[in-house]
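Exercise 3.2. Students should predict the tertiary structure of the chain below and write it as structure tokens, then compare their answer with the key that follows.

Predict this chain's 3D structure.
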Amino acid sequence: MDKVEKWLKKPKRISADRGLFLLFLGLLIWAPLPLGSNRPWLWSLLQIWVFALAIGWLTLYAKGRIHPSTVFREARVFLWLGVIWLCWIALQLIPLPIEWVRWLSPLAVELHEMAYFGETPPAFLALTADWYATSEFFLKSLSYMLVFALAVLLLRTEKRIRATIWVVVWCGVFQAVYGGINALQTLEVAHGTFVNRNHMAGYLEIALGVGLGLLMADIGDTEAATWRQRTRDLVKWLLSPKMRLRVLLAVMVVGLVLTRSRMGNSAFFASLLIVGGIWLLAVRKRSFGAALIVLISILLVDIYILGHLFGLEEVVQRLQETSAETENRDEVNRDMLEYLQAYPIVGSGGGTFYSHYPSFRGADTAGTYFLFAHNDYLQMAVETGVPGFLLIGLMVLTSLWMALKAIFKRKDPLSRGLGFGALMGLLAILIHSSVDFNLQIPANASLFMLLLALAWIGAKRPSHARGRRRGAPQGGAEAGEEEEEDGPGFRVAPVTPGELGVNIDAAQEAPAQERGPSIFRQPWDVGIHYRYTQGPQDRGQED
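Answer key:
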């Protein structure tokens, strides 16, 4: 009772942006539910939601209640590339002198002249012939960049990171269960709340990646020395929340199989093998055995046993029957190369594929209407030109590098797990995007941006070792404590003995209520000095 009373009387410190974080989680939950948000009114609602969160964060920042996180400052390379990308899309919308447009995109001038039915066009024209579609594309791109920015700003503690991953996992489980029940009842394929089964498969690929990353993070870094210890650790694992996560991953694998998506299942399998091998190479002796058991269980139990039980052989049969004669996507790719040659520099305009492709399709695809190309890479290239495609490619490559850096360089298990989840999810969706258009679906594109953010968070987030006295529970504020508001206060950080006198004086001059814990050496602080600093607090994040 005394402990309960003390807990009730204990003042709770709640971060100023906690409400924004909860609304961010609500965004992740809502996005896939209404058809993957792939309708004009649905993606408009999604954009309003994201813009409102961004305005809310800026308002709190202007009032001095919150500050940019460490990861946000470290991710400036990605953010600057994103700003350049948005400026590149905006360039397609800005009216330019007609001679400039003729030099950059001769075909765009011809389309504008056709639109004026022989009359003289104005002296200033936009590079895109479909201004509405490109402005819509710009707003989508801006909202996706804001999803990345909000993620690296709001996911600044271990508790928030884990909560976000669990939200993604539970959303994936819902899609798998809902889609699987419908598929088993109607004897059709599972597509969940998405219109297309491939888009549900893409969503599950990402959810499985981040879920497996969390599972790898919780395996631990120690190896048992005896069989008795191994048995005890196995029993603990079976009774721990890790087993619940393991079961949820198996449910999502069943849902993925029930989509009967050829490339969805192939991309998941390939990314699991690639990233699993990288992980085993990185961890070496620290948790090699446990990681190997988890990966083998995924391959044997989930894919082989459960997969065959729920119809994996049908996916294999579809793959065997796939050929150039039965598919027309290779013809579309051929036409897209001609399309790219007509708009190599600035592209035809973001979001204009559906209106421009009919001018380039061959006779063998003339009877089919394509709203999207079944290849995200080629569609991005023809709509934004080679420079736009390279900008997007650099953003993805830097994030892949951050994921690898998190796996190989970080010592914090959660940071390494974030690297695993981000790398696996990114590889899976990038493989799948070579034959589909998952990144044109707002729900999947938003989750893709979250993956990019998790890669940077895993590589750049300060771990919990610094600023924590010996024997304290790992995680700082995440070890059962409430989050602390950002602002001036006592921040614990190692200093050299030469700095100690100056810092003691600075701390003694500070008001008593701002001094925080004693800055003098304590019995458990052997060899460590502390200093008083004023600035933003990222409690539970510091190394």
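Discussion points: The chain has a mean pLDDT of 79. Residues 399 and 469 are 33 Å apart (CA to CA).
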